[in-house]
Amino acid sequence: MRDLPVIIVGAGGHGRVVADALQAAGRSVLGFTDNDPSAWGTTRCGAPVLGNDDVLRQHEPQSVLLANGLGTTRVSTLRRDVFLKLKAQGYRFATVVHPSATVSPQASIEEGCQVMARAVVQVGAAVAANTILNTGTIVDHDCAIGAHTHVATGATLSGGVKIGENCHIGAGATVIQGVSLGDECLVAAGAVVVRDAAARSRLAGVPARPMEKT
């Protein structure tokens, strides 16, 4: 299946990072889809923007793999919804690992995960489907990360951390050992999380505390 060409859904910044990781790993990028008509017919990382998602109908699900090119800067359902919609149509998603990343053979990385340049995934870690481990992230031993979560650039999850589904862990944030976060939590950039938090918590600061509602 690794030999199948990949179409990236979304031709923005994150989509180009995904393309770069795939190409660095020697995989074929057939092109991108994007909803912006001004992008159609242009190229990204040497691959064409083919049109919107309707062009996927030209490719039987067994003939290609998809990669989710949608990034997030906060908790959002868009990336999850695109993944689930296209899975329901029979498409499969490439698991993307940049060659400079380090993934323990004793770690588990599910379908559609993206492990970017210089990221580290240690022994016993389990990363659920459609999750982004962005540039330089550290996921230490025995962490568990729920589906559709984004661990942003330079964030660190210490040993035994549990992260729920559809969370956003901001750039440079740290979650100390053994902490658990519920589904749809947002951890602001640079925060240091030292205690458990319930689903839909919004945390910022050092040590991290709930954000004030505005």
Summarize the structure.
With 214 residues, the chain is of the alpha/beta class.
Question: In whole angstroms, how far apart are the ends?
Answer: 48 Å
State which percent range the strand residues make up.
Answer: 25-35%
* Strand line-up across the major sheet: 6-9-12-15-18-21-23-24
- Rg, alpha carbons: 17 Å
**Oligomer category:** single chain
* Biggest sheet statistics: 8 strands, mixed
What value does the average pLDDT take? 97
Strands, total number? 24
SSE order, as H and E? EHEEEEHEEEEEEEEEEEEEEEEEEE
The CATH superfamily of the largest domain is Hexapeptide repeat proteins
| Principal-axes shape call | globular
Question: Could you name the ranges where pLDDT drops below 50 across 5 or more consecutive residues?
Answer: none
In the CATH scheme, the class of the largest domain would be Mainly Beta
Number of helices: 2
Number of structural units classed as domains = 2
Explain what this protein looks like in three dimensions.
The protein has 214 residues and is α/β, with parallel strands linked by helices. It has 2 domains: 6-94, Rossmann fold; 95-213, UDP N-Acetylglucosamine Acyltransferase, domain 1. Helices cover 11% and strands 26% of the residues. The chain contains 2 helices and 24 strands. The chain has helices at 13-24, 78-88; strands at residues 6-9, 29-33, 43-44, 47-48, 65-68, 96-97, 102-103, 108-109, 114-115, 120-121, 126-127, 132-133, 138-139, 144-145, 150-151, 156-157, 162-163, 168-169, 174-175, 180-181, 186-187, 192-193, 202-204, 209-210. The chain has an 8-stranded mixed beta sheet with strand order 6-9-12-15-18-21-23-24, covered by helices on one side. Strands 7-10-13-16-19-22 form a 6-stranded parallel beta sheet, with no helix packed on it. The protein has a 5-stranded parallel beta sheet with strand order 8-11-14-17-20, with no helix packed on it. Helix 1 links the parallel strand 1 and strand 2 (29-33). The protein starts with 5 loop residues before the first strand and ends with a strand.
